[in-house]
Design brief:
Layout (H helix, E strand, L loop, with lengths): L1 H23 L3 E9 L3 E9 L4 H8 L4 E11 L7 E15 L4 E6 L7 E3 L2 H8 L1 E9 L8 E10 L8 H4 L13 E6 L1
Length: 187
């Protein structure tokens, strides 16, 4: 009888683990575009799958969420380590005000921050897009050389007052992180 209970318990644990993995979904970077102006190298990209049910629920409760994106520009070299040209770290923060029923989005790289909207889908779009981000000056690049952009995004760990850790235990499940994405190009 104990063996049957142990097998049944193990089956339930495996079943829950499988569906948690399937339902979790993975965040990923998308539509990565590298372009330039007369003076600068620019990056455009999106983040997909970054608003899980738990994250959305917490945001709608008024808990701020911050997405950090790490971007590096490297000069590719054959027999030695690649040389880092620049490193950029940016942050997007969303906060919902239940009294005003509006979202405030702050983007560290955007001079027009904070952006205010009453639409959650619009707020999600603002949080998940990076447009016209300066990565480096073209004076730092050599024509005809091979370069690589490496990018990654993650949801920052939320720091709550001690007494709220017991009430908002679901915040500990915010382990959202993308893989490193690379884009090779020749300038």
């Amino acid at each position: 009888m104990k063996i049957i209970k142990c097998k049944f318990l193990l089956l339930i644990i495996v079943f829950i683990g499988f569906f948690t993995t399937v339902w979790a979904g993975e965040a990923q970077l998308s539509d990565i575009i590298i372009t330039n102006t007369r003076d600068d190298l620019l990056l455009y990209m999106g983040i997909e799958g970054c608003f899980s049910h738990e994250v959305t629920k917490a945001i709608m409760s008024g808990v701020p969420a911050t997405f950090s994106t790490f971007i590096g520009l490297y000069k590719v070299r054959r027999f030695v380590m690649d040389r880092q040209i620049s490193a950029v770290q940016i942050a997007h923060t969303i906060k919902y005000d239940p009294m005003k029923k509006e979202f405030s989005i702050t983007r560290s790289w955007d001079k027009n921050s904070p952006l205010i909207t009453s639409s959650f889908p619009e707020a999600q779009k603002m949080m998940s897009r990076i447009d016209n981000l300066k990565i480096a000056s073209l004076g730092q690049l050599t024509k005809g050389s091979q370069y690589q952009i490496r990018a990654k995004a993650e949801l920052d760990e939320v720091r709550l007052p001690f007494y709220l850790h017991y009430v908002l235990f679901f915040v500990s499940m915010w382990n959202l992180e993308t893989d490193w994405y690379t884009v090779d190009f020749v300038y």
